Amino acid sequence: MIIVTSAHIEGKKTVKTLGMVKGSTIRARHMGRDIVAGLRGIVGGEIREYTKLMAEAREQAIQRMVEQAEGMGANAIVDTRFVTSMVMSGASELLVYGTAVIVE
To answer: What is the mean pLDDT of the segment spanning 77-88?
Structure first.
């Protein structure tokens, strides 16, 4: 599956647009990670625990989007975008969406 943020894929021709596809996940903070993140917030630097949490959330959301696109018969997704939102204190949704297409 080709996934791009642009409207077109260099060297490929879009032969059919199948529609919007999306994938999402909601992740809550973990108490143990919060303690380490709080300590890191005091001394400064990257909060690796949250970086890892968000990377895992992105991969899961992308996989769900790809599964939906494959179910529609797509071989590519164009105009891919990510959106995050807080759904409650300590929990965030990560949504990825794009347009499923068939390219040659």
So the answer is: 94
Paired strand residues for 54: none
Q: Is 50 exposed, middle or buried (0-12, 13-18, 19+ CB in 10 A)?
A: middle
Q: DSSP labels for 87-100?
A: EETTEEEEEEEEEE
pLDDT of residue 90: 76
Q: What's the number of CA atoms in the CB half-sphere (13 Å) around residue 7?
A: 0
Q: What is the pLDDT of residue 32?
A: 58
pTM of the model: 0.85
Dig out the tokens for 41 from the structure: 């917030």
List of domains in the chain: 2-29+59-103 (3.30.110.70)
